[in-house]
């Protein structure tokens, strides 16, 4: 699946040709055969049906779930802290510079206006060839094409939208102003879509006749319910669609360590032998951990234990006003405590670490700390998924960030003691209005349907709060882009230099990720000091993560050598990397487990019990913190 980010049409120079390059096919000689997963024909068929179902609504599902995982989320925090989503629609000086751009290019603007007038004339005469994209499901109803009045309405909308976006291009703004104005224009254009109007949408009109208006009555009830409490956006999943521990987060295991900050879950081995070196998963800090333990056959944790890994996972506590002073050092110390527990339970001197998004950012700082104090060898292998460490031009959220907004938001969370994840979800929804607002506006309120039950949407609707100190620290890192400068940030009293991380690393990004831009994720290969295998998966932010074997559409790209040799496999220019990359069919999960197997020790008999005398099993997985709201 591919998606197009409307707000990122002017990438950095080194990636300006990305759209053209990304679509080209790898030469036949570069293709590899996918590894077999040994599943039965029926299991494969079930997986294909399941993935097809996900693909049908994947754009909405993965984008909504991005709220929790994206490291540029740190930049969104400036909007969530104070003022809510409305602050995003104030153009400020960007609007002034847009007007100045029009004044500097009057002929271009006049030509654009004349072109719009010409196209609208063609629409009126029935000669326009404008049509929505094939994947634009808003206008899939045949009435849009067969009814002359509706067809003209749709074509007029498309012409106006194209002209509005073109005017932003014509203004010749710099990157930041361009991103901000494009964001505002895109929201206005998508809000004006005739599909959002109950008197124009043929599917809504038909359903209203069929139900005698019952759809609008049911939709009105849903509207009142949704907007009564935060986040004041359409619901993307019913509150009772799933139950944690019953439908999702069901991989067997137990809590073997509980502190004020986190619970450590050890999962039950599912193979006779396991790799000696344990794995610790560090999830993001703004949502629950179980995005990596969704339903069976869609759980990354399940895949790991079925491939002989000894898996531990942190489940962060949902902080409240009592925990306002929990900052980066608090979470960094928690990771070290978890690593120590993994070592003692498995009687090993090393652990492999897997960091996800904001969790990966903190874990990277911890690895730099270990390198600084001479304990880098405690980490046998390091993996990162959809994590941005270099936040320069890291998507539209980066463009929306300002020092004024950052200061106001951190002050607001300091006064409250935390940042509410529900507020953040509301802010995020307006970054992807077509998928996260208007799609559900039509489904829930105009059609009167209940939203579909998707596990990742349920996970997304289960946010956690962020402590005021963590909010402050994240904003500081984002504003200064501090991680790219050796010594510009600290972790547990030591200066952070990512170049001192020489542990072999495996870095995953999604080519259609609209928040953690893959080019930004790629910059990690330039920051770390060791060999880094970079893998570019198909799909977007969440589909790149929740990518189980069995999807015939799945593939990924990596260096021709299949490795990540520093200085040869990872050139500075992302376009050069993509030009040389080879396409591999299948899920990166399988490639990753092979990579891990060669770095996590010899096989040994799987332990019969979880924990040990110092870390006795407590509650069964998924533990207790995951249920806190």
Task: Please give a structural write-up.
The chain has 629 residues and is of the alpha/beta class. The chain has 25 helices and 16 strands. A ten-stranded mixed β-sheet has the order 1-2-5-4-6-7-12-13-14-15, with helices on both faces. It has a two-stranded antiparallel ribbon with strand order 3-16. A two-stranded antiparallel sheet has the order 8-9. A hairpin with a 3-residue loop joins strand 1 and strand 2. Helix 8 packs antiparallel against helix 9 (175-191) and helix 13 packs across helix 14. It is globular, with a radius of gyration of 25 Å. The protein starts with 17 loop residues before the first helix and ends in a 24-residue tail after the last strand. Mean pLDDT is 84; it is low at 1-84.
Helix count from the secondary structure assignment: 25
> How far apart, in Å, are the first and last alpha carbons?
33 Å
Low-pLDDT sequence parts:
1-84
Which structural class do the helices and strands define?
A: alpha/beta
Strand order of the largest sheet: 1-2-5-4-6-7-12-13-14-15
Mind telling me the C-alpha Rg?
Answer: 25 Å
Helix content: 40-55%
* Count of beta strands: 16
β-sheet strand percentage: 5-15%
- Residue-averaged pLDDT, rounded? 84
| Sheet with most strands | 10 strands, mixed
General form: globular
